[in-house]
Amino acid sequence: MPGSSPILLPSFDLTNLKKVQKLPAGIDDHPVIVPAAVLDEASNLRLEIREEALLHKWEEHLNSFSATPFFAPSWLECFRTRNRTPIYLRFLSGGKTIGLIAGLRNEPSNPLLKKFVKILFFYSGPVVVDADRDLTRFCLEKLISYAGENEYTHIKLESWDFPCAMNLEGLPFKPRIRSEYILDMRPDLAELEKKMKNRMRDVRAAEKYGLTFHEGNSPEILDDLLALLEATKSIRLSKNYQTYSYFYISYLDKDTLVKLFKSRIVRAFYVKKQDEILSVALDAVHNKRAYGLFIGTNQMGYQLKANAFIHFKLIQKFKNEGIEFYNLGGVPSDPSSKGLVFFKTSFGAREQVCAGGRTHHLQSRFFNYLTDAYSRFPDLKIKKIIKKKLVGRNYA
User: How far apart are CA 229 and CA 272, in angstroms?
Assistant: First the structure.
């Protein structure tokens, strides 16, 4: 149902946790300690933020939570540049890690520009014990304190694979709400196939046409993907879809895509008829979660039901690999998305509300006035260039 969360986390006693008044020193590994511990008087929950410098330790913490692939070092390290570095943060109470968030520090080289834009960027919001809504809010409050103390100008939370209805009331966040379509893979395969019964005719037709499913192990498959994404875009625009860029994820481009593929956090799958590739899907896979990043299909592929066939085969494969949640991604906000919604739900995926947002300028109220004035400018080419520099997203 919209707004419900499929995230399952290890069980802790939150009642006792919220009574913690004092943090014992020297507990819970040897991370870098950042002075951002703040006592929330209303809840008596003392949270501390620690930056984790050891990636193998971070991976151990990820294994204790149902964390999105976007928290994995194998994802974030591929986005590292001179001005953009990964950051891994743990929320602790009483020496116990009760939440995680990971993303990118974005700092311009020029010291003067840092007063205007020094961003903490996250692909997804915090993952916390039992997906507790109040605890998520407390973590956001501490994150804002941490950002302010460390002279960051903004926090940007995107909402990829983050099915959590955050309570942002009273916080300096401008929220952005969207939907994604997530398939719970925990039932057995027979039960999953029942949910896809309306698609089985297409799957059988694809098999009759001689289509076969494969995993691509060479980066050359990415060239096929990009060509098929162009073909898909042309087909959609012919059906009056709004124009779009398929590099919709911030800071993602072809070079980064190759790095992600080589890191194995991203995997490519394709369907072909004899020697012709008709459809390619790219999925981020980590621990027990998978996220559908891209899928490109050409005109013949649509005619031969390759799009339905590749989804069916991915569900089978991920189920056999122990994946518990498969996120088929979101849809555009324009009216043309109705067909995509129907397609994704026909595989048993359910709509989940995903929340993100962006803070106001955390260092100066004056800069917020400048931001408001800038937002009223016409959407000219120069504005798109500035937006790409600041936000990292490619615009059509």
Answer: 16
